[in-house]
Amino acid sequence: MNAGEEYLDLFFDEVDTSLEALNQQLSLLSKNPGQVSIIAEIFRIVHTVKGMAATIGFNTISRVCHRMEELFDFYRKNPQEVPTQTIQSELKALDGLFKIVENLSSNEGEESSISKTLSDALCKELEEELKKLNVPKNANVPKNTKALAQTPIIEQAVSRERKFEIKVKFAEDCLMPGVRAFMTTQVLEKNGHLLESDPPSESFLDNIEIVSSGLKAIITSSKPLEQIQSRLLKISDVIEVEVLEREMSGSSHNLSAEQIPISLPITVTKSIKEINYYEKSPEQIEKLLSDFQRHEIAIGNLNAFQVDLVLTDEVVNAEEQFFNLLNNLNEYLGQIIYSYPSILELGQKQENSSEAKTLTNLLNVEAAKFIAHSEKLHFVLLVDGSHKNILDFLSDACELNKVEVKEIEFDWQKKAETEQSPEAQTEVKSIQEENKDLSFTKSGDVKTAFVRVNMATLESLMNSVGELVINHNRIKLAMGDGATNEERSILQYLHQVTTKIQQLVMSIRMVPINQVFTRFPRFIRDMSRELKKEVLLEVEGENTEIDRLMVDELNEVFIHLVRNAIDHGMETAEERLEKGKSKAGTIKMQAYAQGNNVFITITDDGKGIDPQNIKKKAIQKGLLTAEEAEIMSHNEVLELIFAIGFSTADKVSDLSGRGVGMDVVKSRISSLGGQIFINSVVGEGTSIRLSIPSTISIIQALLINEGNGLYAIPLSQIKEIVSINVLAQVYEIGSCDIILLHNETIPLIRLGKYIDLEKVSENNLKNQSNILVVIVNSEEKNYAFIIDSLVGQQEIVIKPISHKANQEGLVNGATVFGDGRVAMILNIDQITKMYLLEHESREFPNDDTGEEALYWASRY
Amino acid sequence: MKTEHISFSNQYIIFTLAGETMGVPINFVREVLNLNSHNLYKIPGAPPFYKGVINLRGQVIPIIDARRKFNFGLNLAQTDSPKAIIVEYDKEQFGLVVDGVEEVARIEDDCIEVAPGHLSTIDKDRKIGRISGKEEDGKDRFVFILSKESLFDSFDKKTSPGQFRKIPNETLI
Q1: Domain boundary among A101, A133, A165
Q2: Mean pLDDT calculated for residue range A515-536
Q3: E strand spans, A622-743
Q4: Which residue, of A394, A569, B29, B148, has the fewest CB within 10 Å?
Q5: Where are the alpha helices (DSSP H) in A441-484?
Q6: B interface mutation test: which of A711, A807, A825 has the most B CBs within 10 A?
Q7: In chain A, what residues touch B164 (CB-CB under 8 Å)?
Q8: pLDDT digit string (tens) for A196-233?
């Protein structure tokens, strides 16, 4: 994989996460359309996505995001309820973005015509929405632009400066127009005061139209016209600079005290702070703060913090992250008065390194240098808030390895006083000295950071740990009884370490099931809209942890189940009211962990499943005869919906009932080693319960010998192991044998018949007095398997077996032992299914009393 | 010494199976190893041409009995020291049991043609390749070329449960 692709992967990963978060926020918003915090969060996410896409050059994405952002910016600035229509359009745009991203990722980053068309369509729709609001283009920063224009008024009043209008054009193949524009304004700042720019500097980074429109700016400067022009032309990709002198407007000369803006403490100082970017020594922070204060009118209750942060090693585009981070901090949190490296440097580096990356020329020494020194960032931030605000913002914004936030103690009041008297200059110095000692002592809490790990890496780590466990057992075996005490204690320690590593790796793989649940609020919303049914979602136990590998599998299963619940289960609002139910139906998703298993229940309060309908359908489809249907229990009937090719929907809707049905869900769950149960009461609703192992790579298993082979049975399915007296406890009923145990009749299955083709399966029970059986539970029913002998209980590592070699699914993989032996892990569910198939697709009566069994015996 | 661009694309592992000489493309092969039948573990319910699995450095790899898979040479005696050619297909590894592995040979594309009718049970394309002057008498040697697909295609289709269960009067492996 070359560096470019790696960069792309990272992009897709980040974008996926962001879009997923956006999805969640939009769903939240639809419930609370007026909540400002949600709107701000959406704005932030869209902004981030836009920035990422623009940096890598995906215009299809950034254009859509730009318009989404404008919409939300309006609501952010003008708090009011966001109309449903707008949310709908945004959701549509989000779906479009998902599609574009998918398209991009399948085309290895090439923007195809499909994504372009899609992007165009989405932009158009969002613009329609924008028009309704009467927001002019680029209106997302009106306040700031105004503020910028007002800022330097103070300085203007005292200096003799001229006013220039400057037009800058960029080369058409310019790679990072936003950064060029940013650099342009930096140069302008250096040579004078930037009054205005079009587009405004806040929207540079993601404004891709800047190439065609160019940049217009108005500055005041005491420097000659030619000098400004020549400096601007030194910026690469700037191809044309036009400088016109303008008349100074009279009002700025005759500035009265009342006109000094008091209410904009942060934006007012923009120009000051940007000048200070060039300061690199931390000793000057004090000075920076007091400088800042001198120009500040309403200082308010701002706190100063010194922040050091280190990104994780995985981050390849640290420069860019820092660049975006600093810009975002300035825009959303507070005021950066100093940073190392500076924003300007970062902007340049970012440009260089992305150019290098575009050429997939990461080996280039120049570019490599930038990457190597890029993980650390130091800055001083003024903010109206606490440690926590900063930490939260930072951890949201980037992947931190380490971050340290220190509050700088700075007595604004005292400073202000001392500054005012010129006689006190010496005193100021000494106070500054003192403050320096004190200033960095108050240390903030250090936040633990998260690392993003490729699933394949984790998988291979898991395999290696599996090897370690196996080899540990080998050593133990090899040393045998002759081990010395020292060897034993080493082995003991090794065992502890191995176990610890194993647990850690397992815990890394575990993610909250919320990752599966989060997409449902949106999904349910869309579906209920489409089907004109009102549905509420309740989620419980969303922090229950499951193996990351299961997340994708479960997603599909849940979508299927929830879709079924809404489409088939839920009544319309009118029907519900008629029945005396609440107008809106409820779907409840619950998860909890028990032992090695996670149980997930999806319950709806809809109309339930009518067993008569199922019977009718099943007979119609030839799955069973009317006579068979007659004698089936309620649960047996319900379980027919898991039969292959069964679908009870009267009409095939767009959303469900397409023939792939519950049978697929069931096979998916059992391939994960789980089970599925259904319960339904007509008129009250349906509940589907899934039981899945919380992890799919290491399980507790019972090892048994049967025939010539060694096999493992998952311990989670074993109820007990008993020795059965053939004469007293085994009954023969028709073609089946059953045993009577604790007053329960349990089908007796010769395991060897199903798993070992060599073993002669003659009916030899009568020759034995006692047999060893394992009572296993499969799909809430018990079965007794006859086995030859027990080996023991052990934790085993599951190794997959190619589906090609395991088409019948009788095993769930294999495990490898320390001595190199291999044992098959039996899929009990599949074996019992084969047993049932063999006995004419009829389940064996499995009720509580022995009398019942005798009744069945007579019947057959 | 001739400098030549080395390409794996025209190289084949040449092996013998039930008296026939065959080749598989080398880029399809991961390794070749000696097969010890004691280390084979059966897979319940597997198609009959699977001899079982082996433990290859911790990975569980299914072993295909090529004779049975291709349904030929079943009556000929097997060698004492069978080899397994480990091949990769669809990101999974499989072992192919053969009688012996002879060499790695280059067969240019223009030396590969469609074979006459026999052996059609193996591969519907029936490709054979010609290796110049490899026989003892200096004649060209012909090998049957096995495609990846011939090994896996025919049973990729979904099979109904129990299909492989009833094997008429044959003891397995």
Answers
A1: A133
A2: 82
A3: 675-681, 685-693, 698-706, 709-714, 718-725, 730-733, 736-741
A4: B148
A5: 455-479
A6: A807
A7: 807-808
A8: 777 776 666 556 667 677 778 888 777 777 777 777 77
